[in-house]
Design a protein that fits this description.
ten-stranded mixed beta sheet; 14 strands; TIM Barrel; 21% strand
Length: 351
């Protein structure tokens, strides 16, 4: 089997090529050249043509096929539809951060799986069911394809697209390491966020391995019965067990725990919900990211501005913790949080 660039960290690439006399330094230079040029280099300083030719014969530079790209005329979010090793299409989103004229940039929201097994009631991806895991190179190449299509740099990555990242732990961590390596995509580790619905064993592994990436946990309700209705993962990893794992994470890292809260009118935006969350997290430094639900079926509706304002004030009062409202853009092109479901795959054409 050929060695795949974009699928191995530089250390792993070195291990795979060391039998041919490739040093770690050369492995890193090859990795950097391939990821920046998106192809195997024709030449490399201080490297013989013979050695490069041998390496070319032992390796491949895989690429995703872009099937479609939609850009929102409303807010500039872009939705990409890709195909990789399998027949099923998956999506990524380019998030524009262009408010600072001296530092325009993008964040790439990438998928870790095709479909999702979590079955969250408010999520279109969850309604797809699970199709397959994505390889590390398929995640890395989502960022590369977005970068090559963009006029500003991609400076951040969020694993918040299709799938549950921590159920594809090995490949996700490998991809994040490649993205953050100086000889990889050189994106700061602290600018890479890995989201989870609450896979407790993987959170504990993430903690034990002292991963440098940001951890975001989708909680959405502090009431276990309500959470089980919305997020079936509750039945496997109950909220008390999840919070214990997050306390361990904070104790080991000193990091404030980020909790994502998908806000839904009449479901989880009452003062009672804020009080339950305060009781659940007492003594645990948290940060709350409020994200309006995006449900094309209409079963769940985003809170009204008045409801959200009251709920946000209640959270700040009862938790004494930072509360941020996260804008989930691109809803007009089905690019917003919870809307990725391969829309348009059947009619997509290769670009």
């Amino acid at each position: 089997m050929p060695i795949l660039f974009k699928n191995l960290t530089s250390d792993a690439l070195h291990a795979a090529l060391s039998s041919a006399g490739i040093s770690l330094r050369l492995a890193r230079r090859l990795q950097a050249a391939v990821l920046r040029q998106d192809r195997f280099p024709e030449d490399l300083p201080e490297t013989s043509a013979r050695l490069l030719s041998e390496m070319r014969g032992r390796t491949q530079v895989p690429r995703l096929t872009q099937l479609r790209r939609d850009v929102s005329p409303r807010d500039g979010f872009a939705r990409y539809l890709f195909r990789g090793d399998g027949a099923d299409a998956f999506e990524a989103v380019r998030i524009p951060l262009l408010h600072r004229a001296d530092d325009p940039k993008y964040v790439a929201c990438v998928s870790a799986q095709v479909g999702c097994a979590m079955g969250c009631a408010f999520c279109a991806t969850g309604r797809m069911g699970f199709r397959r895991q994505l390889a590390a190179w398929e995640m890395v190449d989502q960022v590369i394809r977005i970068q090559r299509d963009s006029q500003h740099p991609v400076r951040g990555v969020v694993f918040m697209g299709m799938g549950e990242p921590l159920l594809n732990y090995e490949a996700v961590i490998t991809a994040a390491r490649i993205m953050s390596e100086p000889c990889g995509l050189a994106i700061a580790a602290k600018a890479i966020a890995i989201s989870t619905a609450g896979i407790v064993p993987a959170i504990r592994r993430f903690t034990a391995e002292k991963q440098p990436f940001r951890l975001v946990v989708s909680l959405t309700s502090a009431d276990p019965h309500r959470r089980a209705e919305l997020m079936p993962v509750e039945r496997t990893y109950p909220t008390p067990e999840l919070i214990t794992a997050l306390r361990e994470y904070h104790a080991a890292t000193g990091q404030r725990v980020t909790l994502a809260w998908i806000a839904m009118e009449g479901v989880n935006t009452r003062e009672t919900d804020a009080l339950q969350l305060a009781a659940l997290t007492r003594g645990l430094p948290v940060k709350i990211d409020l994200i309006d639900v995006n449900d094309p079926t209409g079963q769940f509706l985003p809170p009204t501005p008045a409801t959200l304002a009251v709920f946000r004030d209640a959270l700040r009062h009862h938790l004494s913790a930072p509360v941020a409202r996260r804008y989930s853009g691109g809803s007009d092109i089905h690019a917003a949080c919870g809307m990725l479901a391969g829309n348009g795959a059947a009619n997509a054409t290769i670009m």
